Task: structure prediction
Amino acid sequence: LAKTTQPISMDSYEGQEVNITCSHNNIATNDYITWYQQFPSQGPRFIIQGYKTKVTNEVASLFIPADRKSSTLSLPRVSLSDTAVYYCLVGDTGTASKLTFGTGTRLQVTL
Amino acid sequence: GAGVSQSPRYKVAKRGQDVALRCDPISGHVSLFWYQQALGQGPEFLTYFQNEAQLDKSGLPSDRFFAERPEGSVSTLKIQRTQQEDSAVYLCASSAREGNTEAFFGQGTRLTVV
Result:
């Protein structure tokens, strides 16, 4: 599975847009990019998944350049409740494959 | 139920005891995963089931760890002769299809070995 690299931590003020970039230089042709969010004392929660270009849902947007060697999770107008750890995962979703989490990015949102 | 349910939420075991952790996945979900999460770290893969078949157990740290899903629904993770390094949160996840498209996680079981 492709290894991912993302910042250890980020800080933001409430109401700002937050962009978390993940590097995955060795991404394979069949790999998708998936982001999870984890609050303290809870299991990770699926946020968004994409293969290329841009994906948007009610929570976030995911931007993937043409070479797919990186991706950016964009959280619009964050609130205090968005304080969490965000994980970028890369893997083949077409077969029985395991999710491989890194250490994630700890986002701290303050007033 | 509406989500993945794990029990117990908290477990304290004396070193050397055996423990059993239960996972009730979302009804009808084919795939089931177990993860171990140490404090401040990301979840680490332990094992994967597709229905009742255990297709991948490469992450189980030792032969003291055993998982089963006999009828393709509820799963149990058993740890024999627990050791202090087994202290962690054990997370269960399920997904509707093969693989890991969108996995739904339970709240986990926090195991403390004393």
